[in-house]
Design brief:
Number of helices: 21
Helix content: 55-70%
Strand content: 5-15%
Radius of gyration: 36 Å
Strand order of the largest sheet: 6-7-8-3-9-10
Largest sheet: 6 strands, mixed
Structural class: alpha/beta
Oligomer: single chain
Shape: elongated
Length: 591
């Protein structure tokens, strides 16, 4: 069932499932609250013997004042100890639940398909993990314990009231259904506004994240005012939903108090009449009124928990929506060891969900083991889409892709991707050490000499030695403490260390200067030897030595051949090559 469609009871039961592993500690918290709540009727109960037993001039006190004072202090000391203990244990459980929920969300996040990240902004996902999960704990722990504690307090006080005067107590109980009805009417509004506020928070975080990541573009193109307006709109939208939550939440307490005050006024009138009729002693009357007044606080708490409960349930919808999001399909049962590298695209077509025009249209291509195949063509021709199908980031709409004769869909994902290495033009590095970025993931246990060898082969060791801590130097978010060429060489070193039989190079030398490019090209020559390599190239001069060049236009293969063959043919490749050659010659002449 979709969490957004789940009933409140089902959502709450699922939340309590995350509390269950800590049932003993949670039980201690509940026990402390129950014991603290059980002391509530003791104070009004002390009033009756105090007043009836001699509170006043000329009477012999049957209840010693010192004993009364000691009992009063003792009650509140006991309640203080119990409240502190229950609060501590409750906080411990709440933080463990947050820990477990975030771990479950992140575990699912790293296994979600590429389509999920295409459909959801990073700000929305960040908001779920960072903020929504905090609201869930209020519903899973705090609301439950407040409900237990104050329900017991109300039950104890009502029991005492019934003992004193059951007729007057029934008058107090008459307002109960009215309070319940009013709270139920507000619940759906609170849940709806809480849900919208979470979406608004996601939009706010998204704007903030984009502005931080693109701060250079914002400065250079004077986008400060534009981004400020975007942020203001998102901020105002969030404020609006928060205020819409405040109205029903703030109405609960005064309406409850008005209803309770009405009942109290009626009870006071009847109690006074009863007292005049000599049916009620002074002590009973004072004890009854004290208990009635003490009822207001737990009643207030019980009605006020509706707002955090609905916010928590809305947060639970969001959290469980991410946890329940379908992970990447992995129906493959074939475990592939080290592949030979034979790749076949058989009549493959693919269309992105957000587009009407196919990105690939009936593409057929056979790549022999150890062959170097370059994909060229104008932007949007389908080059990147073709290689994205190899690691199964996306699944082809039709046709078949095989590796060593095995359909990719029959291969276990882990085994398939273990045979692939990718170096993209969009370098992906993490805010970690240089070593951790080279020996990343499954390669984390690589020996130091292997990491150094990979860095040296990628011509990265020379700049690594110039850093303060060498391999342990932190490179900053996205590797911003390094130059573009240095980041590119780290990515190449990572691919070198993996030593996969199939290599995908998406313009892997695009960020390098001429000298670095020459060095890295030499390293890539060594890396590509004996491996199946698919190169996406925009600069045609970098792939002249490829075994085969495949030209894609509008998702279809229009030409295939070697560099000399395609130039001699005078087709699409020759035209692209001539355009680039003329541009380079003009640039050189200007220089």
């Amino acid at each position: 069932m979709n969490p957004a469609q789940a009933s409140s009871g089902a959502l709450y039961a699922r939340l309590l499932g995350y509390v269950r592993p800590y049932a003993k500690v949670f039980g201690l918290a509940l026990l402390g609250m129950v014991a603290a709540a059980a002391t509530e009727p003791l104070f009004p109960a002390l009033m009756k013997p105090l007043l009836d037993g001699g509170f006043g001039a000329g009477k012999q006190a049957s209840f010693p004042p010192l004993a009364f004072a000691a009992a009063l202090v003792g009650i509140f000391i006991l309640r203080g100890i119990l409240s502190f203990g229950s609060s501590y244990f409750l906080a411990w459980v709440a933080n463990r639940v947050v820990l477990d929920l975030r771990a479950a969300m992140f575990a699912r996040l790293v296994r979600l398909p590429a389509k999920f990240f295409d459909d959801h902004s990073s700000g929305t996902v960040l908001s779920k993990v960072a903020y929504d999960v905090g609201g869930v704990t209020a519903a899973a722990t705090t609301v439950l314990t407040v409900a237990v504690k104050d329900t017991i307090a109300v039950a104890g006080l009502l029991a005492w009231l019934l003992y004193l005067n059951w007729k007057l107590t029934l008058v107090a109980l008459a307002v109960g259904p009215l309070i319940v009805l009013f709270v139920r009417l507000l619940s759906s509004r609170l849940r709806s506004m809480a849900r919208e506020a979470q979406h608004a928070m996601g939009d706010l975080v998204h704007v903030l994240e984009e502005t931080i990541e693109c701060h250079k573009v914002v400065k250079v193109f004077g986008g400060q005012d534009y981004e400020a307006r975007r942020f203001e709109r998102a901020n105002q939208r969030l404020r609006g939903f928060n205020m819409r939550q405040t109205v029903p939440a703030a109405l609960t307490t005064p309406v409850t108090h008005i209803l309770a005050a009405t009942a109290l006024a009626i009870i006071l009138y009847l109690a006074i009449e009863d007292s005049l009729a000599a049916h009620t002693t002074v002590g009973e009357f004072a004890s009854f009124i004290t208990a009635m007044l003490m009822l207001l606080a737990p009643l207030k708490h019980l009605t006020e928990i509706n707002a955090p409960l609905q916010r928590g349930l809305a947060a639970a919808e969001s959290v469980f929506g991410l946890i329940d999001a379908p992970a990447e399909e992995d129906r493959g049962t074939v475990t592939l060891a080290r592949a030979r590298g034979e790749i076949t695209f058989d009549n493959v077509s693919f269309t992105y969900p957000t587009r009407n025009v196919p990105a690939l249209c009936s593409v057929s291509l056979a790549v022999r083991p150890g062959e170097r195949v370059a994909l060229v063509g104008s932007s949007g021709g389908g080059k990147t889409t073709l290689v994205n199908l190899l690691p199964r980031f996306y699944a082809a709409d039709s046709g078949r892709i095989t590796l060593d004769g095995h359909d990719l869909q029959t291969l276990a994902l882990e085994g398939l991707r273990a045979n692939l290495a990718l170096v993209s033009q969009d370098v992906v590095l993490f805010n970690d050490s240089i070593r951790a970025n080279i020996a990343y993931g499954a390669m984390g246990a690589a020996a130091e000499r292997e990491v150094i060898a990979a860095a040296e082969a990628a011509h990265a060791l020379e700049f690594i030695r110039d850093t303060p801590l060498g391999m342990e130097t932190l490179i900053g978010e996205h590797g911003m403490r390094l130059s573009g060429g240095q980041r590119q060489r780290l990515a190449i070193a990572r691919a070198l260390l993996k030593n996969a039989p199939v290599l995908i190079l998406d313009e892997a030398t695009s960020a390098l200067d001429s000298e670095s490019e020459r060095l890295v090209q030499a390293a890539l020559e060594t890396l590509m030897h004996g491996r199946t390599t698919i190169v996406i190239a925009h600069r045609l001069s970098t792939i002249e030595r490829a075994d085969r060049i495949v030209v894609l236009e509008r998702g279809s293969i229009v030409e295939t051949g070697s560099h000399p063959e395609l130039l001699a043919r005078g087709g699409a490749y020759a035209r692209l090559y001539r355009i680039q050659y003329d541009a380079q010659r003009a640039s050189a002449a200007d220089a």
